[in-house]
Write a structure and sequence with these properties.
- α1 packs across α4, α4 packs antiparallel against α9 and α6 packs across α9.
- This protein has nine helices and 24 strands.
- With about 400 residues, it is of the alpha+beta class.
- The protein has a four-stranded antiparallel beta sheet with strand order 2-9-6-7. Strands 14-21-18-19 form a four-stranded antiparallel beta sheet.
């Protein structure tokens, strides 16, 4: 076992110390004495004060554990990234958490709170430790405190802890700023779409490109489409795709397995075709395929050639928020409360307003350019996240066995 990381900052040498967690944290389930109220209940999952919490009377709050800055709480919910649950460090200040969470307080001298925020959230370090310290059930894991506290981890000097924390924190700031940039672009696109397409009750948009005037044409939705019922006749005839609220994807990008036992009878699609979901159309599961040259989708979808407008225009029109209401207007309540059944004939008769082909192209080009910018900035965001992941692998040594 190597007791040092692959990457060290200048001036730091020597091996890291191997210490049990019991020399770094102690279990500290201090009960609320009643002085901390409902406004200080902390969400462990997301680390914020839950101002809308409803937990009963003040006496019940005395069963809650005090949760101070730098403390860590164990959350037993399992997920893809945290198969044995996880620890979450309190980064916002003193509050209280439900007694279902075990709280541990730092006891090590010169404990660097920011360093341990990264260390106790790093799956590569914590997974083998939690694997040895938890009892698994179907959905939850339970931490055995005595087993956890005797597990060993590698610890750098306080000065090196601080240096690692500062590096990763600076990278987190970059990631946060890039994420805000992506979110701002998505918000800008959403606002622009509300102005470039007529909203409910309107016949023309609020924003026009120079040179375009006059009324938009009134069309039935069905007049723009021609259903395509071409289906596969043999297994694996083409690439398996899926349509979702977020867009068109390879089935393998969304699911770890093929959802049906056979692809015979699946709908064949080509680039430019419209795919509508029969199950959650009102939630926005409608897509024009501009990503793949061809493919197969489940027969649960309806597929169409777009014949009455530019496919690139329809691609953006189906993704605006007001189109969800357009689809919802042609549905009825299903057997399940969250299920809506599409009344297809009613949907086809509904009216939409359509600009000239030239204006359709202008709108589509504008929104596609914004999509390209969002994709580029999103790729930069993912690159920063990947860089952080790789950097952490070099800044932390292999976990102690």
């Amino acid at each position: 076992m190597n007791n040092t990381p692959q990457l060290r900052f200048p001036g730091f040498t020597g091996e890291w110390s191997e210490k049990p967690f019991g020399e770094i944290y102690k279990k500290n389930n201090v009960k609320n004495d009643g002085s901390i109220g409902v406004d200080k209940i902390i969400s462990v999952a997301n680390m914020y004060f839950k101002t809308d919490a409803a937990v009963g009377d003040a006496e019940y709050l005395k069963s809650y554990n005090v949760f101070r800055l730098g403390d860590i709480a164990y959350e037993g919910n399992k997920s893809a990234n945290h198969a044995y649950g996880r620890f979450v460090e309190n980064t916002i200040g003193e509050g209280i958490v439900s007694h279902v969470f075990d709280v541990y307080s730092p006891i090590a001298p010169n404990h660097c709170l920011l360093y341990w925020k990264y260390a106790i959230n790093y799956e590569r370090i914590m997974r083998p430790i939690l694997e040895k310290s938890t009892i698994k059930s179907t959905m939850m894991t339970n931490l055995i405190a005595k087993d956890f506290l005797k597990q060993k981890t590698l610890v750098p000097s306080p000065a090196e802890q601080q240096k690692i924390a500062e590096c990763l924190s600076a990278l987190d700031d970059l990631i946060s700023a890039q994420g805000e940039k992506v979110d701002a672009l998505k918000t800008r696109k959403k606002g622009l779409m509300q102005q470039l397409f007529p909203q409910n009750g309107e016949t023309t948009p609020r924003l026009r490109f120079p040179g375009f005037t006059g009324e938009w044409s009134e069309k039935t939705f069905g007049s723009l489409l021609q259903e395509n019922r071409d289906c596969s006749t043999k297994e694996n005839e083409d690439t398996l795709l899926t349509s979702s609220i977020e867009g068109m994807f390879l089935n393998s990008e969304v699911f770890s397995h093929q959802r049906g036992s056979s692809t015979i009878g699946y709908r064949k699609i080509k680039k430019g075709m419209l795919i509508l979901s029969a199950q959650n159309l009102h939630l926005g599961n409608a897509n024009v395929n501009l990503r793949f040259e061809s493919g197969l989708v489940s027969p649960a979808y309806k597929t169409y050639d777009v014949i009455g407008c530019l496919p690139q225009y329809m691609y953006h029109w189906v993704k605006q928020d007001s189109t969800k209401q357009f689809f919802l207007n042609a549905t009825t309540q299903g057997a399940s409360g969250c299920r809506q059944n599409v009344v297809w004939e009613q949907l086809y008769k509904q009216i939409i307003y359509l600009p000239s082909p030239a204006e359709q192209q202008k709108i589509a080009s504008c929104l596609s350019a914004l999509d390209d910018l969002i994709a580029s900035e999103s790729a930069e965001l993912e690159a920063l996240k990947a860089h952080k992941k790789g950097l952490m692998q070099q800044l932390f040594p292999e976990p102690a066995k």
